[in-house]
Description:
- This protein is an alpha/beta fold and 122 residues long.
- 43% of the residues lie in helices and 21% in strands.
- It is built from five helices and five strands.
- Helix 2 (35-44) runs parallel beside helix 3 (61-71).
- The model has no long low-confidence stretch (mean pLDDT 92).
Amino acid sequence: MRIILAENRRKVRFALRALLEQQAELHVIGEAAHAQNLLAQVEEICPDVILLDWELPGMAADDLLSALRRNCPEVLVVALSGRVSARRAALSAGVDAFVSKGDPPERLLSAIDCCAERCSTC
């Protein structure tokens, strides 16, 4: 699966990349620290998955999600947030899964796998 990491904090992107690159079937093809950069990348290369910081600077999260879906309708979006309270808003907006940044790494990998299988319990 081809993944774009959309997270404004470099250390978090680094940690996510390190985790994902340990999985043979997951390939990080891009990184974005700002909504406009993410949209430009998605327009150029439609990834399979976007790991989306729900508080990514540059655009309201639900507007960003709508723009991503217009540019790449089949993309799977896994929202990430340090605020567990963001879960409801992210799922209501239509993300495929939500993972708290405080969850163990296995939870993120499980959410990606679950969404890839298109199960409804992500």
